[in-house]
Every structure is written in C-alpha cells, then in structure tokens.
Write a structure and sequence with these properties.
3 strands, 12% strand, Arc Repressor Mutant, subunit A, 3 helices, alpha+beta
Length: 95
C-alpha cells in the first residue's frame, strides 16, 4: 500500500460524511488514480464500517443496519425491490 493510500482513504471517508455519497468516477478524476484503486479504497473503508458500498460508489454507513460482524449492510438490486439500476447509477437506501 502506498503511503498516500491512508490519506486518500481518509479524504474519501470525509467526503462521504460531508456529502452523503461519492461515485467511483468522481474519485478517479479527483485523485488521479485508477477505478480499481478507488474500489480497493472503498472495500477497505467498508470493511472498517466507515462507509457502505453501493453500485458505482459509496454512501454513509448506517450504524443501525450493521450486522454482528460489524460490516454495513449493502443495498443491492435484489435487496431493493422495484428499484432499477442503470449504468453509473447509485442505489440509495430507502429511508
């Protein structure tokens, strides 16, 4: 892992908390890294319970939806019936 990765991940987590969500495509342009690098960053943050991954990006982790393993529940097309995902869309959790 690059020395820059922890700083980038901290900025990603902060951005998610400030705005409610981020897109992989926005983050690749912002940081000048590949989409796979951003996806690895999102995986790491999601494992730590700091964000919840969704199709195309990430949203704030909902502490009330955490499983016993500490991982956030991820909204998927099958867990959000009646919601259609299109390319580059983000599936926001239903409140």
């Amino acid at each position: 892992m690059s020395a820059l990765a922890p700083q980038r991940r901290a900025q990603i987590a902060e951005q998610v908390q400030l705005t409610g969500g981020v897109r992989v495509s926005e983050l690749t342009r912002l940081f000048g890294v590949s989409d796979m690098t951003i996806r690895r960053d999102l995986d790491s943050l999601a494992r730590r319970g700091l964000i919840a991954k969704v199709h195309g990006g990430a949203i704030r982790a909902d502490p009330s939806r955490r499983s016993q393993s500490g991982l956030s529940k991820v909204i998927t097309p099958s867990s959000a019936p009646g919601r259609m995902n299109t390319p580059n869309s983000v599936a926001w959790p239903m409140q």
